[in-house]
Amino acid sequence: MAQSTSEYYKQNPKARQRRQKQQSKYNKTNNGLKIRTAANKLNRKLGTYGNGDGMDASHTGPSTGKLEKPSANRSRPRKGQRYA
Fold this sequence. Notes:
- It is a single chain.
- The chain has 84 residues and is mainly α.
- The protein has helices spanning 5-11, 13-27, 30-45, 70-75; strands at residues 56-57, 67-68.
- It is globular.
- The protein starts with a helix and ends in a 9-residue tail after the last helix.
């Protein structure tokens, strides 16, 4: 059985630090900024941004109005990625 990504990073602190450093750099790039601001804008539009309801705008399309739990939302592979 395959191990989940979160379990891997919990068990490998050096790998987790490296990943956090990579993510920090990526989030500062133009593409990372664009993705993050678009997600925040959609969550504000749907009224779920910062209200603590634990819901997230779906990542299935550029401007969807579907709300779902973040765990389900982020578990789907992105375009160009395969299922584990």
